Amino acid sequence: MQNRRTFIQTAAAAGLASTVTASPAGAAARYDQLGRSPHYHLPPVLKSKTGLKIVKIETFTQGATLSFVRITADDGSEGWGQLSTYDADLAAAVLHRKLAGVFLNEDPADLDALVDRAIEANYKYPWSFVCRALSGLDTAVWDWLGKREGKSVCELLGGKPRPFPVYGSSMSREIKPADEAARLKRLMDEKGYAAFKVRVGSVAGHDRDQWPGRTEELIPAVRKAVGDGVDLLADGNSCYTPPRAIEVGRLMEDNGYIHFEEPCPFWELEWTAETAKALTVPVAGGEQDNDLAQWRRMIAMNAVDIVQPDILYVGGVTRSLRVAAMALEKDMPCVPHSANLAMVTLFSLHVMGAILNAGPHVEFSIESTPWTDGLFSPALEVKEGKVMIPAEPGWGVTINPDWLAQAERQVSEL
Ligand SMILES: [Mg+2]
User: Fold this and answer.
1) What is the Å distance from ligand 1's center to 391 Cα?
2) Has residue 147 been placed in a domain?
3) The domain containing residue 284 runs over which residues?
4) How many angstroms does the Cα of residue 289 sit away from the middle of ligand 1?
5) Same domain for 120 and 172?
């Protein structure tokens, strides 16, 4: 099992090139207004202009479930991205109403400035759906840049496409502890997973368990089933006050867990910091957070030990790199939140393959979700506990044309 220091040392020992690199010793910890710490270095591909302009932005939406984004430049070249899940149709509406005007007629290589302009142009309501919409544009630009350079996004960010370890992430609280333990053991044997995450407590649950005693039964049952060689993580989904979070955390420590996610309501940074201070099991969090100044506070006060930006909630790859760079300043690992098998897990793989402070594994949902089946090819596949980071240009996948043909298409263009 690894602790957070080991994550960093392992990454450094592997000599991974990265756009998130250590700053000179003693550099002052200063930030600009939008979360660029001294550790954030502009990816080289964003350092020079291409002379091209974005002339068309399309969304392809199927209800509230999912929406893809295509940008087209004035030479006809294209890039594909995805808006965040959960009310994706609302995110698509925000994209066309509030953000398309920021990106149209601009050079895609100005992305670092465009993501800031997108926030500042919407300064009365800058987070949540603005960031969810921005994520679609940002990820489409990264695909466009990769295709233009003939490189995968992972390579553009300084990484190397390779098989990357994943942790099997359970989304279920309805499953009984004995059944959860048995299914994780089965997945370990069948697919070689060497890490899993389970759910404890109840969502925003005011200290209530899903049913009385479930958490106390689950934590040791899973450890017993998978043995000592497997990394175990647990997610509280904003359930606990600090006293109860600390009790649950102690039980995790007794059973060798390595990650306690969102123990307290995520907006209660002081509660989370109090919990993290009391425990030796590292506390993780931040999946819902999309304000980079809030990220800066969270990291500065040691509310968490592991940062978990969701690439599609925080506003895309570019802003996720800024969070990773802030975390690097405190030697904190970054493990993006990627709780479904649409493109967010693919994006996380590319980023994790490149950043210096990548945690040991990418989140990979083990739940069957028909709405993500066949969305893009090649599909992400777990072999010996790892998933290949695509090496083809851009994101390295093709979105299912049948899915796109059935989707509602909206267009903003010059
Ligand atoms: Mg979570």
Assistant:
1) 28
2) yes
3) 155-398
4) 12
5) no
Q: What is the pLDDT of residue 156?
A: 97
- What tokens does 305 get? 């030990």
Lowest mean pLDDT, pick from 16-30, 153-167, 177-191: 16-30
One domain, residues 53 and 70:
yes
Ligand 1 centre to CA of 353 (Å) is: 21
Same domain flag for 178 and 287: yes
220-279, pLDDT tens digit by residue? 999 999 999 999 999 999 999 999 999 999 999 999 999 999 999 999 999 999 999 999
CATH number of residue 56's parent domain:
3.30.390.10
Ligand 1: distance of its center to the CA of 321 in Å? 19
Same domain, 275 and 185: yes
pTM for this predicted structure = 0.93
CA of 285 to the centre of ligand 1 (A): 7
Cα–ligand 1 centroid distance for 31 (angstroms) = 27
Distance CA 140, CA 98 (A): 17
CA of 361 to the centre of ligand 1 (A): 15
Span from the CA of 158 to the centroid of ligand 1 (angstroms): 27
Q: How far is the CA of 337 from the centre of ligand 1 (A)?
A: 7
**How many domains are there within the chain?**
2
Residues 107 and 241 in one domain: no
Using the mean position of ligand 1's atoms as its centre, give its distance from the Cα of residue 186 in Å: 23
Distance from the CA of 309 to the center of ligand 1, in angstroms? 10
Q: Is residue 8 part of a domain?
A: no
Q: Are residues 122 and 172 in the same domain?
A: no
